[in-house]
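Reviewers of the previous submission asked for a worked example of the structure-prediction workflow described in the proposal, so we include one complete record here. The input consisted solely of the amino acid sequence. No template or homolog information was supplied to the procedure at any stage.
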Amino acid sequence: VQLQASGGGLVQAGDSLRLSCAFSGRTFSRYVMAWFRQAPGKEREVVVGISRGGGNTYYVDSVKGRFTISRDNAKNMVYLQMNNLKPEDTAVYYCSARDDIYYSIQARDYDYWGQGTLVTVSS
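From that input alone, the workflow returned the following structure tokens.
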């Protein structure tokens, strides 16, 4: 499995970004997908997760109402729409895949990782 994340960049507080993650190598619809992020000096934390069919999602409290995860199983893509970005959202964002029917908030439960894309939000 390969995951290729893209879409990061430098934005100002209040702006929006859309991250994309391209999945290849296996049957995408078998995998729960999630986005994690890691800020400098901090541990990697889950941001959002989405079930295999896309019908169930998870959001960490700090991004609820601002971020939206979606997936397109026909295109093997997962997206993270981030609105009203805040400086505290600054981090490297990683997409991840888990071969399971349940998503997890623990990074150790994910089988594959993308290379990360940097999001920097200036105040």
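The mean pLDDT is 97. We consider this example representative of the routine output the project will generate in years two and three.
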